[in-house]
Amino acid sequence: MAEEFPESTFVGVDLATFFNAVDPDDVPINCSFQQASILHLPFEDETFDFVIQRFLGMAYSPSDWETALKELIRVLKPGGWIELAEGNFIMQRPPACYQRFYNSLAAVCLSRGVDISLLHAVPMRLAETGVIEDITIDYLSIPTGWHGRIGDICLASFGAAMRALRPAIAPTMGLDNEGYEAMCQEVLNGFREKKTWFKAPYGFGMKRVEG
């Protein structure tokens, strides 16, 4: 986006430190990064014309969601736009072997106060704020392992997510590292065979201009 809109300034925020490993020569001059939490944004009120949050539905408890939305709206200018975009672990046409992984993931998340079955409803939280207007809510249909390059990319991303979750999920499934990897491969191969896809929900709206 920074390259598409060179007259705008972009600021990325994440709790992780991987931004430190990015070669500055690979970053457009109108783009910068800060390590920070969405729950405590280091910006003044009404700083940005547009804010977007992606793929954090599994990171927040219900109370965190309330705080996160307040922070995103706080740093957004009146008349500015906010967008929420999420992934989804409820797959369409999944292979039978996927259900075991999903059940384990859902149980681990519930133990942390996160219900992954509700990720599709994340964008609807914009309406609950009472200050966001002109709201649009929809979803993208994401092929996973089929339909050309985009499907290959999504399959690789899903596989990376499954492997990143191994420390939390494998013990609940009674699997060692080798067994967990075999399970991942079976699921990913099944996605290709069944032409699995998922609905990636998103929503956007404008912050009300008072007066």
UniProtKB/TrEMBL annotation:
It holds the Pfam family Methyltransf_25. It comes from the Eukaryota. GO terms for molecular function: methyltransferase activity. SUPFAM superfamilies: S-adenosyl-L-methionine-dependent methyltransferases (SSF53335). CDD domains: AdoMet_MTases (cd02440). PANTHER family: 2-METHOXY-6-POLYPRENYL-1,4-BENZOQUINOL METHYLASE, MITOCHONDRIAL (PTHR43591:SF24), METHYLTRANSFERASE (PTHR43591). This is Uncharacterized protein.
